[in-house]
């Protein structure tokens, strides 16, 4: 079956509705395109979990700040369709901006606690843009299950909170981060990295791993874990936005690892702003 490309929300809604009426199960993978293997892993899991697999491609302007990379964000429709067809996508929903934000549009969704700090502090309004567009995509595609990457950990938590708070009735599945052979988390923004910057970008994951190794030796204080990660990352990148230890279930700040922690980092390397995170579990020591 050739992929169906749908650009209008009403047409997508009608297609989803008829699939639901026929008793089908819809899986949605929302993306901004410029697809890579990280996205492909979400699509493969979506293929397993639904009988209609929908991929949305939409570079959402409302989640970019005024000085961010909206204009430069890679747009690679042809290769995206190729990756989508190899992953077994049935429908690509690729709306124009005006179909998503027609004149008069004004409703937004805030998830203020979960969006506080981390990327929310450095990118004001970002998670409002994300929550609002994901709510719209869920209302348009009406999926039974929607898949997101743990690479954008705070985003995943914001979406889980919104879906629960607003009774959206969709199962949210978080998928592990897919990495390059040297550990760099795959990202559409890795395209911004020139040769030397690409090598420097590995510092984020190396820093996270150093912290995990320290925790495995029985050091649980946030200051120590953050300190060792910073010691690896700081000399290599151009600027750190944050390195923070949080509770992996609630995203609350923690001073000491108690059960499941997650260490999150954002840093600038050349033109790219990169994020990454690593779960750090408290292991019982004899
Ligand atoms: P994006 O279009 O890149 O903003 O992301 C679309 C979806 O793919 C989001 O749910 C991301 O968390 C997820 N994603 C992006 N990069 C990766 C990766 N390296 N591994 C797993 N999921 C990813």
Commentary on this structure:
The structure is a single chain. The protein has 286 residues and is of the alpha/beta class. The protein is built from 10 helices and 9 strands. It has helices at residues 9-21, 37-49, 77-86, 97-100, 118-122, 126-141, 153-165, 195-200, 203-216, 222-233, and strands spanning 4-6, 26-31, 52-57, 91-93, 145-149, 171-175, 239-247, 260-269, 272-281. Strands 1-4-3-2-5-6 form a 6-stranded parallel β-sheet, sandwiched between helices. A 3-stranded antiparallel β-sheet has the order 7-8-9. A hairpin with a 2-residue loop joins strand 8 and strand 9 (272-281). The longest helix has 16 residues, at 126-141. The protein is globular. The mean pLDDT is 97. Residues 31-32, 38-39, 41-42, 148-149, 151-152, 175, 177-178, 185-188 line the site of adenosine monophosphate.
Feature tags:
286 residues; alpha/beta; six-stranded parallel beta sheet; globular; binds adenosine monophosphate
Protein topology:
Elements: E1 4-6, H1 9-21, E2 26-31, H2 37-49, E3 52-57, H3 77-86, E4 91-93, H4 97-100, H5 118-122, H6 126-141, E5 145-149, H7 153-165, E6 171-175, H8 195-200, H9 203-216, H10 222-233, E7 239-247, E8 260-269, E9 272-281
Parallel strand pairs: 1-4, 2-3, 2-5, 3-4, 5-6
Antiparallel strand pairs: 7-8, 8-9
Helix pairs in contact: 6-7, 9-10
The structure holds adenosine monophosphate.
**Helical amount:** 25-40%
Unreliable stretches covering 5 or more consecutive residues: none
How does the overall form come out from the CA principal axes? globular
| Ligands, deduplicated | adenosine monophosphate
């Amino acid at each position: 079956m050739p992929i169906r490309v749908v650009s209008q929300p009403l047409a997508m809604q009608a297609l989803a509705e008829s699939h639901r009426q026929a008793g089908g199960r819809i899986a949605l993978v929302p993306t901004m395109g410029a697809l890579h293997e990280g996205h492909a892993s979400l699509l493969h899991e979506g293929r397993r979990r639904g009988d209609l697999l929908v991929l949305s491609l939409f570079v959402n302007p409302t989640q970019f700040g005024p000085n961010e990379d909206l204009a430069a964000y890679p747009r690679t429709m042809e290769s995206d369709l190729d990756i989508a067809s190899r992953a077994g996508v049935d429908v690509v929903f690729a709306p124009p901006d005006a179909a998503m934000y027609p004149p008069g549009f004004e409703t937004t969704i805030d998830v203020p606690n979960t969006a506080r700090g981390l990327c929310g502090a450095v990118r004001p309004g970002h998670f409002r843009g994300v929550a609002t567009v994901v709510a719209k995509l869920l209302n348009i595609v009406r999926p039974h299950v929607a898949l997101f990457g743990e690479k954008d950990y705070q985003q995943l938590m914001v979406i889980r909170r919104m879906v629960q708070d607003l009774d959206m009735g969709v199962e949210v599945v978080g998928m592990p981060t897919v990495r390059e052979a040297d550990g760099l988390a795959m990202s559409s923004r890795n395209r911004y990295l020139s040769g030397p910057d690409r090598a420097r970008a590995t510092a984020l994951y190396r820093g996270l791993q150093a912290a995990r190794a320290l925790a495995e030796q029985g050091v649980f204080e946030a200051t120590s874990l953050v300190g060792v990660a910073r010691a690896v990352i700081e000399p290599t990148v151009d600027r750190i936005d944050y390195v923070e230890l949080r509770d992996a279930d609630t995203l609350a700040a923690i001073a000491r690892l108690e059960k499941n922690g997650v260490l999150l980092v954002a840093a600038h390397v050349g033109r790219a702003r990169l994020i990454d995170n690593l779960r750090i579990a408290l292991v019982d020591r004899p």
